[in-house]
Recover the amino acids of this structure.
């Protein structure tokens, strides 16, 4: 049996996390936990793309400040977003004088960047790095769907791209320990409906989770929470149902960032939130602080990403997906 | 689980659009737009007796209303409820043009607004014109034969 | 006065019916809204060509001219008129002539609106 579970022996930590969110997110269930938010989603900028970059800039600045560091303390920045060529990250982080790697894992980028940073730390290659991701409803809508003012109807399984950015600083001190990492495989189960991304990503989560439980010898009940990125309502129901068929019961402790960030009943987001900002702000504002305080002891976080582009969809391709897993534990220093 | 099985599993369980509700809304709002058009028609008819001309003026009026509603950011909220009710009347065409224009302003007026203004409405103009040409060819040949 | 109300009512029913058919097609089939619009315009040209649409316009007025099938009706009518007046050149000039007002108004107003307004954040 192949073994692709990575156990990090030098126990890298998350020093600090910082979240920047949009207005709709601020009005959502986690509204009071965000470090920063903006009433008009523009963040004082003239275009949506610039606004998204500004969120990343602010998120990293905030996370550095929380950890009492400056940018020259960082060895590396790992960042990503949903826009073509990862421009939000590039323009947003250009002012920081730090070596930079742009990542693309669609909505899984938050988990991907933290996992990669932790692995580089564990290899002794870096001693501190920043992991930043963002998404903006308005810039994504423009790139992936229709103009903002276009009048269209959404399917009940469609998800709402989260406006937000989360930054995490990875280093050797702190109360949040990155214990294990498992990178996902590309899984494509033939879903081609862009309005049902949860269903496209669910098989990737199942694949990673089954491998993880198998190789780590753990069970779902060993964890306080199993946090998925942005499966939304549809994807969450699918993984609960199908994992049960595999003899894995995650019904008690599964939560999804897409369902945490918005209130589906009142906010007209249909199946929930999505985008790499979704898991980033939910993790940065809520999950990481609770791990740090010790309220949560041991969790699994799976970043989920749908790896298509508008062009492949027009060409009739199905939607491949990936899910990266990180095990985070509380550590008393 | 095979891909085919999974796709079937997903489509069997996923929540469907509320067809009846959507149809009722589309009917009411789409009907309302058309009867608003008719009311404007009756009003214009007081000043102009040419039916075709007046009908064109009605379309122009509805286009103007839809574009202004798009500009001030209200149209998409109506359309979210109305669905095909705002899409099918000429208002949907006008919204497609105006929303593309407003949205691409940040890329400049030539490669932004100028190039992208047709991004959604273009297919309608292209295939409408093309089917008109096909009809024209057939009509012309027929008129040659039967004079 | 009564005939005006009746005209509006007929426009309501016929126009609403066009919308319902499109809505059901969107919800029931894989047809995207953009394809529906293209289909409707071509359908309008076809129905006008076989002589079915003009009677509908006579009955329903704006109930038939306001939906996008009416756009197809304007194209087909424009082609027919142009061929009658100018001969074969009308095949090429008629369609856009018939719809010139609508297209030009939408494009120019669209440009003006883009000068004035910006897209807004969505709630």
């Amino acid at each position: 049996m192949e073994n692709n579970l990575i156990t990090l022996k030098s126990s890298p930590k998350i020093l600090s996390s910082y979240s920047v969110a949009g207005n709709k997110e601020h009005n959502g269930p986690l509204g009071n936990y965000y470090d920063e938010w903006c009433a008009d989603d523009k963040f004082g900028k003239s275009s949506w793309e610039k606004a998204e970059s500004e969120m990343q800039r602010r998120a990293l600045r905030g996370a550095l400040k929380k950890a009492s560091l400056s940018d020259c303390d960082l060895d590396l920045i790992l960042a990503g977003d949903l826009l073509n060529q990862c421009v939000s990250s590039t323009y947003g982080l250009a002012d920081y004088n730090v070596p930079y790697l742009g990542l693309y894992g669609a909505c899984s980028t938050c988990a991907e960047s933290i996992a990669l940073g932790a692995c580089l730390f564990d290899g002794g290659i870096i001693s501190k790095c920043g992991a930043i991701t963002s998404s903006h409803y308005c810039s994504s809508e423009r790139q992936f769907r229709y103009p903002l003012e276009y009048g269209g109807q959404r399917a009940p399984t469609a998800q709402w791209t989260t406006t937000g950015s989360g930054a995490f600083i990875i280093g050797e001190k702190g109360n949040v320990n990155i214990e294990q990492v498992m990178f996902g495989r590309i899984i494509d189960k033939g879903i081609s409906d862009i309005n049902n991304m949860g269903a496209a990503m669910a098989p990737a989560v199942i694949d990673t989770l089954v491998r993880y439980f198998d190789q780590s010898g753990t069970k779902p009940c060993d964890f306080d929470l199993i946090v998925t990125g942005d499966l939304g309502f549809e994807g969450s129901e699918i993984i609960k149902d199908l994992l049960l068929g595999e003899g894995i019961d995650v019904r008690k402790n599964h939560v999804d960032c897409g369902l945490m960030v918005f209130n589906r009943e009142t906010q007209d987001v249909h199946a929930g939130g999505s985008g790499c900002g979704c898991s980033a702000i939910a993790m940065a504002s809520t999950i990481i602080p609770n791990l740090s305080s010790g309220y949560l002891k041991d969790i699994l976080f799976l970043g989920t990403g749908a790896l298509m582009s508008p062009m492949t969809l027009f060409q009739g391709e199905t939607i491949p997906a990936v899910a990266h897993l990180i095990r985070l534990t509380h550590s008393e220093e | 689980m095979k891909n085919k099985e999974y796709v079937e599993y997903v489509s069997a369980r996923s929540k469907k659009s509320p067809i009846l509700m959507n149809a009722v809304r589309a009917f009411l709002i789409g009907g309302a737009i058309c009867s608003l058009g008719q009311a404007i028609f009756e009003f214009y008819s007081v000043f102009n007796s040419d039916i075709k001309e007046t009908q064109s003026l009605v379309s122009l009026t509805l286009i103007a209303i839809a574009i202004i509603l798009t500009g001030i950011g209200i149209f998409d909220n109506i359309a979210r409820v109305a669905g095909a009710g705002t899409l099918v009347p000429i208002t949907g065409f006008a919204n497609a043009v105006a929303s593309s224009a407003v949205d691409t302003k940040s890329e400049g007026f030539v490669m932004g607004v100028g190039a992208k203004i047709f991004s959604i409405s273009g297919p309608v103009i292209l295939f409408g014109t093309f089917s008109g040409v096909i009809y024209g060819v057939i009509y012309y040949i027929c008129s040659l034969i039967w004079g | 006065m009564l005939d005006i109300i009746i005209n509006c009512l007929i426009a309501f029913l016929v126009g609403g019916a066009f919308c319902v058919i499109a809505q059901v097609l969107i919800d029931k089939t894989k047809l995207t809204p953009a394809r529906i619009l293209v289909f409707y315009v071509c359908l309008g040209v076809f129905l006008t060509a076989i002589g079915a649409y003009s009677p509908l316009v006579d009955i329903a007025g704006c109930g038939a001219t306001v939906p996008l099938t009416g756009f197809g009706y304007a194209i087909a009518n424009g082609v027919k008129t142009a061929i009658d007046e100018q001969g074969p050149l009308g095949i090429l000039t008629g369609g856009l002539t018939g719809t010139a007002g609508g297209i030009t108004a939408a494009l120019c107003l669209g440009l003006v609106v883009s000068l004035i307004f910006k897209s807004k954040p969505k709630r």
About this structure: The mean pLDDT of chain B is 94. Helices of chain B lie at 3-13, 19-45, 51-71, 75-82, 84-87, 90-103, 109-116, 122-146. Chain B touches chain C through 79 residues (CB under 8 Å).
